[in-house]
C-alpha cells in the first residue's frame, strides 16, 4: 500500500524517466535472478564495450532481456570497431540475427565526423531504433558547449530516439572532468536548448545520479547505471535517500 507522498515516476513502457543499465558480461543465471526482482526498474540494457561480441550464449541473454520488456543493445565501442574495419553491413546483419532492434552510433574512441554519423543514421534508422552518443572518452578532449548543443540537436533531428552524453563507466570523461567532477556549466547550458527527455545522461555512480535527479527531477534519463545499483537509484528518484530527501515534483530547476 502506498501511503507516502513521493515524487511520481513514469511507469510501464517509459518514453522518459529511463534507467539504462550497463551489462559488462553478467552471467545468465545471475541476470535471471536480478531481473525477476528488478525488471520493472530497468528500461534499457547496454551490453558494454565489446562484450556482446565475445559473450557465450548471447542469444539467450538477448531473449531474457526481451522477455522482461527491456531494450538491449550493443555498446558504441563495438559499432566503432566495425566502422574502423568497414564492417557496418555485417554488424547490422548480425544484430538482426540476434533480434536486437536498437543500435548505438558513437564516436567516443574514433573521431567520426558528424556528417558521416548523420549519413549512417539516415540509413540504419529504416531498420533499427537509433541511439547516438556525443562526447569523447578522452578526458582531455574538451568539446565546446556550442558543439555539444549542435551535435545533440542534429542527431535528434536526424531521427535518433535518444542521445547519450558520454561519461564512461568511470565518470571521468565527456560531461565529467578527469577527477569525476561534473561539468555543471555544460549541463545547465544544455538544458536551455536541448530536450532533456530525449537525452540519456551517463551517470555511473550514486553521486552523479543524485546531481541529475536534484537538478532535473525524478524522471531524468540516466545511463551507465550498474546493474547492482538499480534499486538504490529508484530509491533516490523517489526521495528516499538523504541527498534527495526534499525532492519535489519538478522538471529541471535552476542551477544548484
Give a nutshell description of this structure.
With 256 residues, the chain is of the alpha/beta class. Helices cover 38% and strands 14% of the residues. 36% of the residues are buried.
Which tags fit this structure?
256 residues, alpha/beta, TIM Barrel, 8 strands
What does this structure look like?
This protein is α/β, with parallel strands linked by helices and 256 residues long. The chain has a single domain, classed as TIM Barrel. 38% of the residues lie in helices and 14% in strands. Strands 3-2-1-8-7-6-5-4 form an 8-stranded parallel β-sheet. It starts with 18 loop residues before the first strand and ends in a 19-residue tail after the last helix. Belongs to the phosphosulfolactate synthase family.
Furnish the topology, listing elements before pairings:
Blueprint: E1 19-23, H1 28-38, E2 44-47, H2 51-54, H3 58-67, E3 71-74, H4 76-84, H5 88-97, E4 102-105, H6 114-124, E5 129-134, H7 145-157, E6 162-165, H8 184-193, E7 199-202, H9 206-216, E8 222-226, H10 230-237
Parallel strand pairs: 1-2, 1-8, 2-3, 4-5, 5-6, 6-7, 7-8
Helix pairs in contact: 1-3, 9-10
Q: How many structural domains in the coordinates?
A: 1
> What would you call the quaternary organization?
single chain
- How does the major sheet shape up? 8 strands, parallel
* CATH hierarchy, class: Alpha Beta
Helix content: 25-40%
Proper CATH architecture: Alpha-Beta Barrel
The topology string of helices and strands comes to EHEHHEHHEHEHEHEHEH
Uncertain segments of ≥5 residues (pLDDT<50)? Answer: none
Class by alpha and beta content: alpha/beta
Beginning-to-end CA distance, first to last residue: 34 Å
Please tally the helical runs, counting DSSP H or I stretches of 4 or more residues: 10
Number of strands: 8
Arithmetic mean of pLDDT: 94
Radius of gyration (Å): 18 Å
Shape by Cα distribution: globular
Do you know the CATH topology? TIM Barrel
Q: Say which CATH homologous superfamily is assigned.
A: Aldolase class I
Strand order in the largest sheet: 3-2-1-8-7-6-5-4
Question: What is the beta-strand fraction?
Answer: 5-15%
Amino acid at each position: 500500500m502506498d501511503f507516502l507522498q513521493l515524487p511520481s515516476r513514469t511507469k510501464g513502457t517509459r518514453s522518459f524517466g529511463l534507467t539504462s543499465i550497463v551489462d559488462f558480461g553478467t552471467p545468465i543465471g545471475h541476470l535471471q535472478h536480478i531481473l525477476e526482482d528488478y525488471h520493472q526498474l530497468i528500461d534499457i540494457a547496454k551490453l558494454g564495450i565489446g562484450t556482446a561480441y565475445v559473450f557465450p550464449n548471447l542469444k539467450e541473454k538477448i531473449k531474457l532481456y526481451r522477455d522482461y520488456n527491456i531494450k538491449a543493445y550493443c555498446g558504441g565501442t563495438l559499432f566503432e570497431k566495425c566502422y574502423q574495419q568497414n564492417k557496418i553491413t555485417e554488424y547490422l546483419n548480425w544484430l538482426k540475427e540476434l533480434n536486437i532492434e536498437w543500435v548505438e552510433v558513437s564516436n567516443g574512441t574514433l573521431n567520426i565526423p558528424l556528417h558521416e554519423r548523420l549519413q549512417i543514421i539516415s540509413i540504419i534508422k529504416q531498420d533499427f531504433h537509433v541511439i547516438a552518443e556525443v562526447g569523447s572518452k578522452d578526458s582531455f578532449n574538451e568539446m565546446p558547449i556550442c558543439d555539444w548543443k549542435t551535435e545533440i540537436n542534429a542527431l535528434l533531428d536526424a531521427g535518433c530516439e535518444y542521445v547519450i552524453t558520454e561519461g564512461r563507466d568511470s565518470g571521468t570523461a565527456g560531461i565529467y572532468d578527469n577527477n569525476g567532477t561534473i561539468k555543471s556549466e555544460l549541463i545547465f547550458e544544455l538544458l536551455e536548448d536541448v530536450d532533456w527527455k530525449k537525452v540519456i545522461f551517463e551517470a555511473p555512480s550514486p553521486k552523479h545520479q543524485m546531481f541529475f535527479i536534484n537538478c532535473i527531477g525524478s524522471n531524468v534519463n540516466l545511463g551507465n547505471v550498474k546493474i547492482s545499483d538499480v534499486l538504490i537509484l529508484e530509491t533516490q528518484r523517489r526521495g528516499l535517500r538523504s541527498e534527495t530527501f526534499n525532492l519535489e515534483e519538478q522538471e529541471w530547476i535552476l542551477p544548484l
